[in-house]
Write a structure and sequence with these properties.
This protein has two domains: 110 residues, Aspartate Aminotransferase, domain 1; 262 residues, Type I PLP-dependent aspartate aminotransferase-like (Major domain) (Aspartate Aminotransferase, domain 2). By secondary structure, it is of the alpha/beta class. About 4% of the residues have low confidence. The longest helix has 21 residues. It contains 13 helices and 14 strands.
Length: 401
């Protein structure tokens, strides 16, 4: 948005909800904010102990991540995703994942200045488009199908030739769609386009095991057969054992502990994949001073080593999604449960998402996000985050009884 004073940032989407919040004041207990996916459940004691007892506060932490963090991330990829990555050459740390998503087009354009286009799902997290805008790139949304999965065949040859990066997001935010990641990887390799896969909700995949862009197609077939179930996973979403070498050419997976381990305030994650891309991003980010604090890296090591707390969190989110679907269904069509993630993607009665947002605030005291935050194609829906404690859920249900 140019002006006589240079670039003027657009309003931050969630700030636009502030003027509506007083509509919930009539309810005992006040507002229950389900507009942002902020975790509300506590981290594990082991993670908190590592955060407070690492003795790493005085020194500068390695920008690429400590060897312990990169090794923990690689072990998690093997045990949870079934792929082997080289922790020394193919893994690096991020300060959460949002800064990485928003900053990536800028870094990649330094690497490939002749390309200027960022491709991303048309219904998606706003930072993909904003990252393109901040880097002076073209932001080109890619249509989704009826299951909210990206349609690669809708990308024009002209946009593919100019593409700096293709973003995919599985499970998707806000709609919970699952992309064909093997097809996305192949699409990028055939055209020389880097494909980055935002997999921060992988632990909350409800339809099958966690998916990753790093899995060879043959390995995905093997893991499904090993699982011995129709959807390729157990009820707890456990990935089968038997890790295979990751197929990293031209692709990078991005992960965050914010959702998986309720550590959004600690800001730590990692990316893994193509060693040339990882090396370039490591070096650029090192010069720019991007460093995950040492205590946060120690906490991440502890969190990645424990899968039990994730299984418990999965159960919480699944129960909350089911309860919230019934609550939202009192005021419009009952939303289907997502294929992944912890958001409901609900159709607004008469297609007016802002009016539906006001209704839910007034009648139930819950704040949701109008779909237009996630792209013009989403304007007739709202996103409902299952980020409320069981006590808050009981309180909302009591308001409607």
């Amino acid at each position: 948005m140019p002006s006589s004073h240079g670039y003027v940032p657009p309003p931050y989407p969630y700030d636009r909800l502030d003027e509506l919040k007083p509509l919930a004041d009539r309810h005992d207990g006040g507002l229950v904010d389900l507009s942002i996916g902020t975790p509300v459940d506590p981290p594990t004691p082991a993670v908190l102990a590592a955060l407070g007892g690492s003795d790493s506060e005085r020194g500068y932490p390695p920008s690429i991540g400590t060897p312990e963090l990169r090794e923990a991330a690689a072990r998690w990829c093997a045990e949870r995703l079934g792929v082997q990555v080289n922790s020394a050459a193919e893994v690096a740390a991020t300060i959460g994942s949002k800064e990485f998503v928003a900053g990536l087009p800028h870094w990649l354009r330094l690497r490939t200045p002749e390309r200027d286009t960022v491709l991303f799902p048309e219904v998606s997290y706003p930072s993909y488009a904003m990252g393109a805008e901040l880097a002076g790139c073209r932001a080109v949304p890619v249509p989704a199908d009826e299951h909210w999965s990206i349609q690669l065949d809708a990308i024009s040859d002209a946009d593919a030739e100019r593409a700096l990066v293709l973003w995919v997001n599985t499970p998707g935010n806000p709609a919970g769609g699952l992309d064909d990641l093997a097809a996305a990887a192949q699409w990028g390799r055939e055209r020389g386009v880097a494909v980055f896969s935002d997999e921060c909700y992988a632990e909350f995949t409800w339809d099958g095991p966690p998916r990753t862009i790093l899995a060879p197609t043959s390995a995905a077939t093997i893991r499904g057969a090993q699982a011995g179930s129709e959807d390729g996973s157990g009820e707890d979403g456990t990935a089968p054992s038997g890790a295979v070498r990751a197929e990293v050419d031209g692709v990078v997976a991005v992960h965050s502990l914010s959702k998986r381990s309720n550590l959004a305030g600690v800001r730590v994650g990692f990316y893994a994949g193509d060693p040339e891309l990882v090396h370039f991003l490591r070096e650029v980010r090192k010069h720019a001073g991007f460093m995950v604090p040492g205590p946060a890296q120690a906490a991440a090591v502890a969190a990645l080593a424990d899968q039990n707390h994730v299984a418990a969190q999965r159960e919480r989110y699944r129960n909350r999604l089911e309860h919230l679907a019934r609550i939202v269904g009192r005021f419009g069509p009952e939303p289907a449960l997502p294929r992944g993630g912890f958001y409901l993607w609900a159709a607004a009665p008469d297609g007016d998402a802002w009016e539906f947002t006001r209704t839910l605030l007034t009648e139930a005291g819950i704040l949701v996000s109008p779909g237009e935050f996630y792209g013009p194609a989403a304007a007739e829906r709202v996103r409902v985050a299952a980020v409320l404690t069981d006590d808050a859920l009981d309180m909302v249900e009591s308001r409607l009884s």
